[in-house]
Amino acid sequence: MTTPPVLGSDRLELGEGIRWTDGRTVLTDILTGRLLALPDKPDESLEQITQLPCPLGAVAPVEGRPGHWIAAAGTGICHIDPAGRVDWIGRPEDGARVPMRMNDGVADPHGRFWAGSMAYEATDKAGSLYRLDRDGHVTRVLQDITIPNGPAFNADGTVMYLADSARGVIRRYPVDPVTGDPGTPELFVALTSGSPDGMTTDIEGCLWTAVWGAGQVHRYRPDGSIDRVVELPAGQPAGLCLGGPDGRTLLVTSARIGLPDPGPLDGAVLAVRVDVPGTPAAPYRPAISSVSAPPDRADTP
After folding, report:
1. 122-125 contacts: CB < 8 A, separation 24 or more?
2. How, if at all, do strands 69-73 and 237-243 pair?
3. DSSP character for 175?
4. Which of 21, 174, 214, 284 is the most buried (most CB within 10 A)?
5. What is the C-alpha separation between 93 and 100, in angstroms, rounded?
6. CA distance 42 to 31
7. How far apart are CA 108 and CA 113, in angstroms?
8. Residue 226: how many CB atoms within 10 A of its CB?
9. What is the rounded distance in angstroms from the CA atom of residue 85 to the CA atom of residue 226?
10. Which are the catalytic amino acids?
11. Which residues, including other chains, have CB under 8 Å from residue 26's CB and lie 6 or more apart?
12. Residues with Cβ < 8 Å from 46, sequence gap 6 or more?
């Protein structure tokens, strides 16, 4: 196996949430609460944008407001300003029956932000998927998930892919473009080895997923058939995106957590050139001119 380029000298505990936005790559180290950016030179340390006093799963840029982020963090969803100040929009997992944290999250093409929650101990069916609408309201749209990862959306936001990593499956949901409500899911892929983790789509409508525990990234066609397997020198790839100026660099985060004897590239950020590009991370688009923090609340189905 040819070793792909390594971006940055750091080795992350639980690297996730990697996104190409505004001409640069940002990512998270979940359990340390850090939001990071890739350095200009591959042998330099990752740049720390901010650090929260709680887990930080993923962020989306806020449209028209450079340096502002919507984040899946702690027990909910928050706004982070350029100074690193946090305003909580909703903390729906406060008071849950088991200790919970947010995991992966992404904005869809319509400007909504979606984020999943999971139990620290990966308690069966304890997790949920939440949606932050453009008006600032947080709604729980799916529940009884163990470890949600993704989601990822097709180009017009009418199809959502969501992994339940603990079950080794990716489900595909139709999404109403007006309301953002997901419909009845269908099984898209069931893995027999490893677990699907972070995901993204490319301009051909194919789905890319990191495969935790297998040291691979898979590309699936829209019919669910596998198109490509990328072998990696890190056993726990966790997050990915298609970025770079031409969108043809597959950027992959990985993790060292839980490994009794981590290898030299476990926890590294890796880069692989691919033929089909993706698009920059979609922004969260607030319906008002500023991101405010409404009362903590979340509707449930």
Report:
1. 122/146, 122/147, 122/166, 123/98, 124/166
2. unpaired
3. B
4. 284
5. 6
6. 24
7. 6
8. 11
9. 43
10. 197
11. 17, 18, 19, 35, 36, 37, 38, 49, 59
12. 8, 9, 10, 27, 36, 37, 38, 39, 269
Check: CB of residue 130 under 8 Å from CB of residue 143.
no
In which region does residue 46 sit, left (phi positive, over 0), alpha (psi from -120 to 50) or beta (all else)? beta
First to last CA, the chain: 47
| 3-state secondary structure (DSSP) of residue 221 | coil
Q: Is the peptide bond before 277 cis (omega within 30 degrees of 0)?
A: no
Q: What is the chain's Cα-based Rg?
A: 17
| Dihedral of the alpha carbons of 49, 50, 55, 61, in degrees to the nearest 10 | -60
**Along the 301 residues of the chain, how does pLDDT read in single tens digits?**
778 999 999 999 999 999 999 999 999 999 999 999 999 998 999 999 999 999 999 999 999 999 999 999 999 999 999 999 999 999 999 999 999 999 999 999 999 999 999 999 999 999 999 999 999 999 999 999 999 999 999 999 999 999 999 999 999 999 999 999 999 999 999 999 999 999 999 999 999 999 999 999 999 999 999 999 999 999 999 999 999 999 999 999 999 999 999 999 999 999 999 999 999 999 999 997 544 444 444 544 4
Give me the residue label for tokens 């950027």: 251
Residue 29 DSSP label = E
Tokens 């949430």 found at: 17
Q: CA-CA distance, 290 to 65, in Å (whole number)?
A: 9
Cα–Cα distance between 142 and 140 in angstroms, integer? Answer: 6
CA distances from 17 to 55, 182, 228, 239 (A): 12, 22, 22, 6
Q: How many CA atoms lie within 13 A of 36 on its CB side?
A: 30
